[in-house]
Amino acid sequence: MLLLLTFGSTLAATEVHERRLNNGLKILVKPDHRAPILTSQVWYRIGSSYEYGGITGVSHLLEHMMFQGTEHLAPGEFSRIIAENGGEENAFTGRDYTAYYQNLANDRLEVAFELEAERMRHLKLSEPEFLKELEVVKEERRMRTEDDPHALTYERFSAVAYDASPYRHPVIGWPGDLEQLSLDDLRNWYRLWYAPNNATLVVAGDVEPESVFALAEKHFGPLAAEDIRPPKAQLEPEPLGEKRLRLKIPAKEPYLLMGYKTPALATAKAPWEPYALEMLSYILDGGDSARLARELVRGHQIAASVSADYSAFERLPGLFLFEGVPAKGQTAETLEAALREQVARLQSVPVDPLELERVRNQVIAAKVFERDSLFYQAMQIGLLETIGLDWRLADTYVDRLAEVTPEQIQAVARTYLTPERLTVAILDPQPLGSKAQAALSSHQGGSTHVR
Amino acid sequence: MCVERQSDRIERAIRTLSAWLAGTLLFTSPLLTQAMPEIQTWNTENGTRVLFVAAPEIPMVDVHLVFAAGSARDGGRSGLAALTAAMLSEGAGDWGADAIADRLDGVGAVLSTDVDRDMATVALRTLTRQPAFDTAIDTFATLIARPTFAPEALERVRQNRLVALRQEDESPRRVAQKALYRAVFGTHPYAADPSGTPESVADLRREELIAFHARHYVGSNAVLAIVGALDRAGAETLANRLVGGLPRGEPAAPLPEVPPLAEATLTAIDFPSSQTTVLAGQPGMRRGDPDYFALYVGNHILGGSGLISILMDEIREKRGLSYSTYSAFLPLAQPGPFLMSLQTRNDQAEQARSVMIDTLKRFIERGPTEAELMAAKKNITGGFPLKIASNSNIVQYLAVIGFYGLPLDYLERFRERIESVTVEQIRDAFARRLHPERLAIVMVGAPATGALGDAGAAQVSLARGTP
Known about the structure:
Chain A: It comes from Thermochromatium tepidum ATCC 43061. The structure holds two protein chains of two kinds. By secondary structure, chain A is α+β, with helices and mostly antiparallel strands.
């Protein structure tokens, strides 16, 4: 690729240093001496796609419990210690991973290691903390899903789009499952998955790899490995036809979601296919110059907002997604027809090389901009390792995309963006009742003194 | 290009808080070895103040151009400032929206506009290599100086913003936030949400946008923050290329004072949600306020430090009432709001509100303990290196320092100012500045007595339409 040669110095990958402890913990260190800080991240190979029916949400609830006390730490003490060391910390749970992180000044790494090692094997899981945290998670579910029309639509859409895949379950869990989760469920889950040989430790920042390895050996080395049995594959059966659902939810505007079943990197027939799908998503939605913004928002004015999304880096086969809100005078159905037309054009007409060139320039620039975020660089490494891929894919990503040809984009559009692989969900807005009307408002002279 | 699919990943982070406060907090360092960003400053010939920090490591540049052209300048035409900024990339000079998008995307540059109550910000991120650099810079300069406000593009953007406004009405938290600002600021320009109302946005005329731009997008009403792989000479050249096409014009007039609340108010809004959003607030403090550091550190302890704050402890950790709760001072040119927030199951709303207000009252009465203050100082000063680690951090700080006229040594002196705050100063500042008997309270949700989704059981309302 002539184009990429000119970027040699710009895109020079910084080195990542690897080490594996005897108990199986994999450590990846990415030195970056731009600022005297570091990010330390522990990635566990556990998430909602490891869960089975009846206990959905257990991985996320366990993530909450990881802050609620260990053998040597009182509930909340973990967070207080990190805070006193000037750290930022949090955790997130996805379908394929549960990750914990601390961002700290570069001389505080040992604080993070000591605490993470403690909760990797010595979590307390007490009943009162569990009952309280369960209420917090139910509030979180209300906030994120129940009271957000688009999130609620996406949840029900996923449950229909997938037949057998555990991706059909929401990360936060079904309400009925949250009602029946027990402390025993969490204890079992913790024992099964929280172990050094089921984790990846990523450190990026102003650090020396050898001293990171030594500290890791000191704190994580003594921890016992666990017999990890990966979950049974729950492969999607061959799709037999389009699926549709209409959801009646209180809202003001309709909303459309479309998803075509697509392979992930590990399951694709050919290794270039997922990269061709990524390129296809950029052709449609890589900024304001891309087709969806140019033709559906500006040109034909069918969409008020619209986007396309696909990710090659997932553990299991997922979806090529479209979502959008129709413009004034349009409907979810006319927006759907316009998106299907976009798909048909990709199948019948090869993409213009100039469009490809523009996307290449965007991803090259984005790769440079990424270097401004230490956290994001570490996150890419942790994510790839946790879904069973090589962290080096983050470095070769731009090259793989640049190799994609117009014919390959046309080929994946024909293979995967077909009606029988499609699920369509439409949010059919219901009246919000008499909300948005002040019952007691200072502006109506009806002020109330609050005590 | 990511579709935001919250359901695919759940973070414990309180996103709303970090989004609201991003770039508005300034921290300082515990480490004497910590290199401070060296801020260089000068004025362009047409009166724009420039703040520049060299960051040679990555071949890129970040630019934030900030005008005193936020929604407080709407002059009763709510949404005018926001619509003006949104139109910049829809046509400028000889280019239409397609050509502008092609130019920027073609070189991988990222341009965005943002409008809050004080500021209109035009941000650009580009590679320093050619032709990316020249293309991005020339496009930016043309957008801010010669937007065309093409009538057909304006109608499209207007209609899509009306759709977006209706979507905002689907969110109990957004409805509550808008209602709280109205309750706290009354007739002050800060009362209105920058996005405007359906009625006001529908009514805005093209001539108003052209006039707003001509008045406010001028050299002497702007601050330019630059961070990137340039030297001083390169930054001066860049600044002239970016803003040289603007007339000098006049700085915006000072905003009116914010009156204190005369009495407590309660605004209850019926909403068919499973949770009630509870907000409480009153006028807080301004940028450069004499009480800034006492209030900032005090609030950090009360509700500004995430999982370890007193508010989080009382409401989430002890009682499991809410996933997210916080308090914040949001300083503006004039006093911005002090606010407190939570959301809880409808039937717990009264209880949660009581705990929230009682927690505030107790904190005002007793102040923080020495141990709490010590922990907060360690957190704030120890976390400073993280706050200035990236170019995007630094460029936001430069914009705030420049726009609000904070001293250039603000970052360097911040640590000693944090360290010098005492328990007594915090108690005194909170007692003088906050008045829990005069809070504006907003509750958006389904009344606990009514059945969910049963509009028939809704309270009789005193007003029709959006309050």
